[in-house]
UniProtKB/TrEMBL annotation:
Protein name, UniProt field: dTDP-glucose 4,6-dehydratase
Domain of life: Bacteria
Organism: Pseudonocardia ammonioxydans
Cofactors named for this entry: NAD(+)
Entry keyword Lyase: yes
Keyword NAD: yes
Keywords: Lyase, NAD
Family: Belongs to the NAD(P)-dependent epimerase/dehydratase family. dTDP-glucose dehydratase subfamily.
Length: 328
């Protein structure tokens, strides 16, 4: 079985690749992966780091291909012979999408269409599209099921929603075997220090203040990247064609509460919080109903938040070389 992981040098994609090669996922390649098994396709934007693949860099089963998912010829070359595509490549930072949305549209929408077309033309067995809970928009109470309409509010989530709809169309129109996952906010090692958890942790480790948006009341469900990747692997191995699976079950926290946990984990005080004006169009709360993946595929999150956060902070403490030059 050959798996192509787009964006495999990024935060989530590289976790998936390292885990596939180190442990294998049950039901994917019969447990341990063999042969010319995992191909990373990555454009190595600012967010793609070859160091993220260091632990498996010498594994003969891994091939790393530099390439842009917007380039049909390159995509066709790399997808030839693939049985499964796990599509993680995207522009991912909401703040960047507010100051400049063009790459979000070309990579997230056009790039996904280029991949879908190549997968169809080449007869790829399954296309797993890694999406986000942000496509549903903000919700005051309760949680979104997969059947809810998409009401994205940022250019990032709008471009992701566009890609989700294209995936749906390739399944409905052409019968391509697709599965979409929509996960809540992730944290863990190797996350680029522009996202709130690594941004705050690394700033605190440098003795700097942390910028808290608005009243700090925005709520997110925090899930360890390892739980997310296990959900993706389950959906890839046993999800039903054409279906969407929400992935969640992390810990719901306001940004204020999250900041408090991060300050405690690093050993810093409240005086390190700096209030800054709110993000434009800041969604108040995201929450997904993940009972479908639990009931159908047996998914359950495993990493308790306190443990996951402690190990994540320890990773940033011990890997300053990885992030120091990237800190804004
Ligand atoms: N981080 C989260 O909390 C979260 C939650 C739910 C879903 N997701 C989704 O998971 C996926 C991965 O997110 P992440 O946090 O690992 O992102 P990331 O920004 O860390 O990594 C993105 C990767 O995609 C690559 N890439 C970007 N543009 C490309 C292009 N045109 N061609 C080829 N490669 C390109 C980058 O080089 C990088 O390696 C995204 O699709 C994102 O929408 C993320």
């Amino acid at each position: 079985m050959r798996i192509v992981v787009t964006g495999g040098a990024g935060f989530i994609g590289s976790h998936f690749v390292r885990t596939v090669l180190e442990q294998g996922y049950p039901g994917m390649g019969g447990g341990r992966v063999t042969g010319d098994a995992v191909v990373v396709l990555d454009a190595f934007t600012y967010a793609g780091r070859i160091e993220n693949l260091d632990p498996v860099r010498d594994d003969p089963r891994l091939r790393v291909e530099r390439g842009d998912i917007r380039d049909p010829q390159r995509v066709t070359e790399v997808l030839t012979g693939a049985d499964l595509v796990v599509h993680c490549a995207a522009e991912t930072h909401v703040d960047r999408s507010i100051t400049g949305a063009a790459d979000f549209v070309t990579t997230n929408v056009v790039g996904t269409q280029v991949l879908l077309q190549a997968a169809l033309d080449l007869g790829v067995g399954r296309f797993v599209h890694v999406s986000t809970d942000e496509v549903y928009g903000s919700i005051e109470d309760g949680s979104w099921a997969e059947t809810e309409p998409l009401e994205p509010n940022s250019p990032y989530s709008a471009a992701k929603a566009g890609s989700d709809l294209l995936v749906r169309s390739y399944h409905r129109t052409h019968g391509l075997d697709t599965v979409i996952t929509r996960c809540s906010n992730n944290y863990g090692p190797h996350q680029f220090p522009e996202k709130v958890v690594p941004l705050f942790v690394t700033r605190l480790l440098l003795g700097r203040t942390v910028p808290l948006y608005g009243d700090g009341g925005n709520v997110r469900d925090w899930l360890h990247v390892d739980d997310h990747c296990r959900g993706i692997a389950l959906a890839a191995a046993t999800g039903r064609p054409g279906e969407i699976y929400n992935i969640g079950g992390g810990t719901e926290l306001s940004n204020r509460e999250l900041t408090g946990r991060l300050l405690a984990a690093v050993g810093a005080g409240e005086e390190m919080i700096e209030r800054v004006p709110d993000r434009k169009g800041h969604d108040r709360r995201y929450a997904v109903d993940w009972s479908k993946i639990r009931d159908e595929l047996g998914y359950a999150p495993r990493v308790p938040f306190e443990e996951g956060l402690a190990s994540t902070v320890a990773w940033y403490r011990e890997n300053r070389d990885w992030w120091e030059a990237l800190q804004r």
